[in-house]
Amino acid sequence: MAKYKRFKGTQDIFGDETKYWYYIEKIARDTFIKYGFKEIRTPIIEPTELFTRSVGETSDIVKKEMYTFEDKGKRSVTLRPEGTASVVRAYIENSMINLGSPIKLYYMGPMFRYEKPQAGRQRQFHQIGVEIFGTDTPISDAETIILADELLKAFGLKNYKIKINSIGCPKCRPKYREALKKYFKPHLENMCKDCQTRYDTNIMRLLDCKVDREISKDAPSILDYLCDECKSHFESVVKYLDEMGISYEIDPKIVRGLDYYSRTAFEIVHYGLGAQSAILGGGRYNSLVEELGGKETPAIGFALGVERIILALKSEEVEVENPEEIDVYVAYSGENTDIEALKLSRNLKKEGLRVFLNISDRSLRNQLKHANKMGATFVAIIGEKERDEETVSIKNMKTGEQFEVERYWVPQILKEKNTME
Ligand SMILES: [Zn+2]
Ligand SMILES: [Zn+2]
């Protein structure tokens, strides 16, 4: 029994699991860079008020899910529950408007929410996201959705659907809210507790309540209430997506509860994930920068959940290569063979091979056992005979085939054989 155990809702990621993390992070980075994004790394701790202001006092996140504590300087500190607020804070604090506008930023890292842990939902979970500051054009919305789609395709995923909506603007939303209030009022006593509270604080969230789906089924659609500007913006976004052959579905039930969200909202659901099916969510937030003390700056972004993408990859049985596999295990036995082994492993690494040199005091037999446990493709053995003859014995661990080669040729031979394996 281990004396210390990790907290519920956190995980140790190691062994064969890490390959998914490399895979996702590498593809995400490469794809973002192709689109002109630059990385931003923000602190994991932020002033609590940043999130109460941005995520909203009435949200579940702020009300019950934040890891908030007082530090030794009596400051209220919160482990970030999401990525956007920190990036907006950094954008304002570092006057990034001077770096050119619009600017495209991406981030990846852990987020923290005190929730009931379940598959694809951890208390420390990981997100990868993008934010674009300084443009309000329909083409920027379209490109953001195209990027999300390209990213999922690059991961090798197929079994997903893009859902898009427009949630209007501060000009057209009040009328829609009125219509919703009128619609839900007679149903309210039959709805869940959350909905009853949100009726006053955040009426649009009633639309995405999973419990009360039957009731909200016939609710008025925001798309019938958009002002002319929002309507033509949305039509342009949709037109770009059509022109680019992106498949999507318009879903007026996709909402963002807070006032600083506007116009385009989207979500990507994966069919292999059951009830927790959203793997990516995003949208436009034109007044958050101002809300957090910056100049009025339109913005759009999305974030994906890494744990959920991994579940999706597994459900689609996407083959993911393990970059940590060992190509050659260098084993040795006998006087002065260790120095020869060190030199050989240096030469093997020069050829780009992944090498595990025996670093324990153990018999040749046990070195071979270890090589097998490490999953090495080849073992290069230097015994006394090989030492004297300046050769190496090579054992192919997959086929059992064994042969002896002149030392000089070993790196090249193994490199060739390894690419064939
Ligand atoms: Zn509008
Ligand atoms: Zn409800």
TrEMBL record:
InterPro entries found in the cross-reference section: aa-tRNA-synth_II (IPR006195), aa-tRNA-synth_II/BPL/LPL (IPR045864), Anticodon-bd (IPR004154), Anticodon-bd_dom_sf (IPR036621), His-tRNA-ligase (IPR015807), HisRS-like_core (IPR041715), HisRS/HisZ (IPR004516), HisRS_anticodon (IPR033656)
CC terms in the record's Gene Ontology section: cytoplasm
Substrates-to-products reaction catalysed: tRNA(His) + L-histidine + ATP = L-histidyl-tRNA(His) + AMP + diphosphate + H(+)
Example GO BP: histidyl-tRNA aminoacylation
Family: Belongs to the class-II aminoacyl-tRNA synthetase family.
Primary gene name: hisS
Primary location class: cytoplasm
Limits of the Aminoacyl-transfer RNA synthetases class-II family profile domain: 9-323
Stored CDD domains: HisRS-like_core (cd00773), HisRS_anticodon (cd00859)
Name of the protein this chain belongs to: Histidine--tRNA ligase
EC number(s) on file: 6.1.1.21
Cited PROSITE patterns: AA_TRNA_LIGASE_II
